[in-house]
């Protein structure tokens, strides 16, 4: 069984109201990037949450040399994911003041320190020491900060916290679990801050112009008295408390009453035997949980033990492994859809977180060589009364054995033997159960891997078959397209040929038509020409006759002229000849008469020849 050290450092001086204000103003220059250093926490909430979240899957929100904050989101499959944070602080470190957005329940895993918080309806600053095993709740709207103690063994302060996710108090991932007080203060301008805090402008500027640091810093002690005057004004302005800072003094702070915190290790376990122990915490034994929908539990299993098969009728369990390792078996309801829920076996180690929904039977088992310690949060503070399937208080003991035999399809003797053997209860001895479960788990994993590989091979075969089918279909489509293309080409050619033939026929018809028109036009032209030709012929004939007549007239005139000229010439010649003849006659008048007759015959001959020429 795990031994938890229960250190109680009551020797540490309590925090005073002044120190709270001191830390608040110290936080202002150191906490400007609290949400920035949280790496914009809302960015992480978009990831899907599962039933099991490994430690390595935690999301780092803050990482400094003085501490770190990480978170996970885990779901029960019924409602939105549950937000869990893990705060780890080095000794003498300070988690700077924040404003809480939702209900917060936390468990101190290791270390010690002090919690200071204030709530709007309270009339005082609350301060409690923190130690291992403490459980505390802070309500929405609380302003709080935490300081870890400086221990000789330098043990880190580790806090596991859950933020409510219920119908009445919903965790909103868009704004995160809390916000920096510095950001709230610096969101207002200088004039508003001066009026609210009643301080000088230099004080306000020293706040608004201060440098940025991380959410967890080294806690440097201070003894300055200058913050006493700001103490009451801060309370009145920021949380509405009714304090007069000028009336406060150190004695009142020393006498301030501390709030009581519930510690798991201060209480007796609900159940304990040689196989381990278990304890549940709700509003009945921890008044701070009153009004919250979160309860807590812790289970410590010794080596080779098992928390018997059981289920929660009213609560979902969100468990964190604190030490050791173990196997968890979760069974789905018989009517659940296999696609949405399946039986689970998984191995968990220190730091892992797992969730089990209500009405899901489960069993947790430790290994033979290691204990298994886990604590967790339940989603209800009402009496849960877990129902055990096996053991002395088995729910089967309440059923009619004959009906149970029929239900399990076995004999009554078998049922008698089954129930008579159950002498232990709740936490049972189960040597090598975890090992066997792990073996089955590995076999299932191997089987699932083989099935997955076979499925992948089958899917690959189907893909290849589909690929071949697609290729064949593609080939057929291409062939069909080629055939259609050829048919289309042939059809196009036929259409073109038909079009060409029609065009040629039309052209031939047009040519014949034009030829016919031409012939008709020629015929008409001939007829016209004939008509015009008759008139022209007559005109030509008339013209020809006229021209012939003119030619004849000209010829006649020419002949007449020629004849006249000839006649004149002949007459002239004749006259000349007659003159010469007369002369000769006169010369030869004395010649004989025969020569005169011959001369007259020649003259007659010449006259006839001239007439023939004409």
From TrEMBL:
Signal peptide: 1-34
Coiled-coil region: none
Region Disordered, residue ranges: 445-614
Comp. bias (Basic and acidic residues): 445-517, 525-548, 556-614
Domain named Cupin type-1: residues: 51-205, 262-416
InterPro entries listed in its UniProt record: Cupin_1, RmlC-like_jellyroll, RmlC_Cupin_sf, Seed_Storage-Functional
Any Pfam family: Cupin_1
Record keywords: Signal
SMART domains: Cupin_1
Protein name stated in the entry: Putative rmlC-like jelly roll protein
Taxonomic placement: Eukaryota, Viridiplantae, Streptophyta, Embryophyta, Tracheophyta
